[in-house]
Amino acid sequence: MSVLVAKGIRKTYGSLEVLKGVDLSVGAGETFAIIGPNGAGKTTLFKVLTGEVSAQGGSVSFDGKDVTRLPAFVRARMGFGRTFQVARVFGELSIFTNVVLAIEARKVNGGESCGRWWDWRPSADTSDEARSLLESVGLGRQGDEEAGLLSHGDKKRLEFAVTLAGKPRILMLDEPTAGMSAADRKSTTNLLRDLKAKGITIIMTEHDMDVIFDLADRLMVLNYGAVVSQGDPVTVREDEMVKQVYLGKGVGHA
Amino acid sequence: MNGSSFMRPAVILLFVAALAAAPFAVNQGLLFLIGIAMLQAMFALSWNLMFRYAGLASFGHAMFYGIGGYAVAAIIFHGFPLPFLLAILLSTAIGAVVAFVVALIVLQRAAGIQLAVLTLALSQLVLLFVSYTDFLGRDDGLSGLARPVLDFGFFTLDLRSPTAFYYFIMVAFALVTAGLLWFVSGRFGRVLLAVRIDSERAAFLGVDVRRKRIFVFTLAGAIASFAGALAAPWAQIISTDSMSWFNSAQPMLATLLGGAGSYWGPVIGAFGLILVNYFTRTFVGLSEFMVGGILLFVVLLAPSGIAGFFEMLRRMRNRTRTASAREHNQ
Ligand SMILES: Nc1ncnc2c1ncn2[C@@H]1O[C@H](COP(=O)(O)OP(=O)(O)OP(=O)(O)O)[C@@H](O)[C@H]1O
Ligand SMILES: [Mg+2]
């Protein structure tokens, strides 16, 4: 059954038509990758799917419910979790607080208690969960540091922990390994594989083809806001149109 | 462990002790000003609550200070048979309701400069309305307000005594300051900081940003009204000055001077401004000159205010300390 379905998404910025009627359907537990050259409209498509911007045309539904007009925070409460192409963390706050925030937001939205109402500190449960999440992305030791001082790659990992803290049903990752070292890339890929094994639905864009072929069940190629090809990764790789889109670059290094 | 974790409670204790000792140490004029300083500090704290924790810069916050003041003044002046504490409560509630309605309208879309202009315009409208209302004394305001006697049955508190009223204000100030500190340190404060730092990112955590902002705006309006409601009987007069743009600027100046990045910044700034005014009172125009000069100094040399300046010193000291410790270890 499809978890996320988008039909005929059209988005224009002024006279620039960024998305020209994109359809997509992602099944439960599937890892769906969107690739395409710079400026193809991948990030814009993410924004429309998560409710960050509204589209001029088309519809988005989640779990069979039409969410086209719902604001981002409502979609987040329904189970959308997303990361940004350039990681966005709460820079002035500590790494630990960043994750605590996300856990507490999830608990409040789910009607769970956040501990004693008069206690200003995060509850023991929340703190433990935050620590283990940070541990899982390899930031376990640095909790007290200011998030804004982290390296680009570490910010990505923190943002990942923040997103996971929301226990999303669908993970939307905009270039999860961009700007990471080879080692970090490897560990992020492993982390994603674990999540995938747990049955979480993932939609991702990525420029690194190794990561894509490692993880993706299905692949969509976007070029100038239109779908060029769609299918399982091996078939798409052999598609003539796709080779043309990536002409001269070689699919492996797009 | 750094020095400030011991320093801060000590400084606060000293501050409280100094406030408590004031009635025995200073003359009536200065005592009155310290009372005003506490009220202005509450007012500034409420402004910074919006600014620091929701990213909202209101340029018309005195509207709420004035509403609280006029509400309580009208009750006293026209002799409504309402106990003083209830009058204060009612005035605060009126301020909260008005703030809530303003927030609903203004925060629909506006942020940044639009919010600043809209709040300023609204406060001027309210001021104009008041200056045409006979019931509120038109341009002259309401004066000769009698200070109340609180009757609790088993004992009475005579606020006609300046010292008693002073302590009444001090208790209110302590309660508001402690309550607000507790509030912003907790879960709600964390979410609000997130909203101010990156509201879009906060939305993706499932936070209803608009609702949080409306709540903060309402709370800030309520606290400002509360401060205003105490200021009117303390000064025994209320006029449209209380809602003027000049009074709207006071919490901003105090916050800028004390430092917006620290909880205590607005308190430090509000007391600082009152002190400058007091020591320059005999020279016409000198206080404006001094305030202007100090602000220029602060903005250029210590952009995060007095509190931020001390924080910077502390960090520098810690850094040299860790650096020398490291050298020592090598
Ligand atoms: N806010 C905006 N206003 C105007 N044009 C925009 C805006 N955002 C994106 N665009 C344009 O839309 C097009 C698609 O941008 P988008 O960021 O979606 O591409 P992308 O596929 O994510 O690219 P990349 O691989 O570089 O991340 C680009 O031409 C971009 O310049
Ligand atoms: Mg992009």
Automatic annotation (TrEMBL), chain A:
Pfam families named among the record's database cross-references: ABC_tran
GO MF term (any one): ATP hydrolysis activity
Positions of the ABC transporter domain: 4-249
Keywords: ATP-binding, Nucleotide-binding, Transport
Classification via InterPro entries: AAA+_ATPase, ABC_AA/LPS_Transport, ABC_transporter-like_ATP-bd, ABC_transporter-like_CS, P-loop_NTPase
Family from the record: Belongs to the ABC transporter superfamily.
Protein's name according to its UniProt entry: ABC transporter ATP-binding protein
Source species: Mesorhizobium zhangyense
Automatic annotation (TrEMBL), chain B:
Record's bilayer topology term: Multi-pass membrane protein
Pfam families: BPD_transp_2 (PF02653)
GO molecular function per UniProt: branched-chain amino acid transmembrane transporter activity
Record flagged with keyword Transferase: no
Keywords: Cell membrane, Membrane, Transmembrane, Transmembrane helix
Principal cellular location given in the protein's record: membrane
Any coiled-coil regions, as ranges: none
Subcellular localization(s) per the UniProt record: Cell membrane
Protein name, per record: Branched-chain amino acid ABC transporter permease
Native source species: Mesorhizobium zhangyense
Domain of life: Bacteria
An example Gene Ontology CC term for this record: plasma membrane
Record-linked InterPro entries: ABC_transp_permease, LivM-like
Segments crossing the lipid bilayer: 31-50, 62-80, 86-106, 113-132, 164-184, 214-235, 255-279, 291-310
PANTHER family in the record: ABC TRANSPORTER ATP-BINDING PROTEIN, HIGH-AFFINITY BRANCHED-CHAIN AMINO ACID TRANSPORT SYSTEM PERMEASE
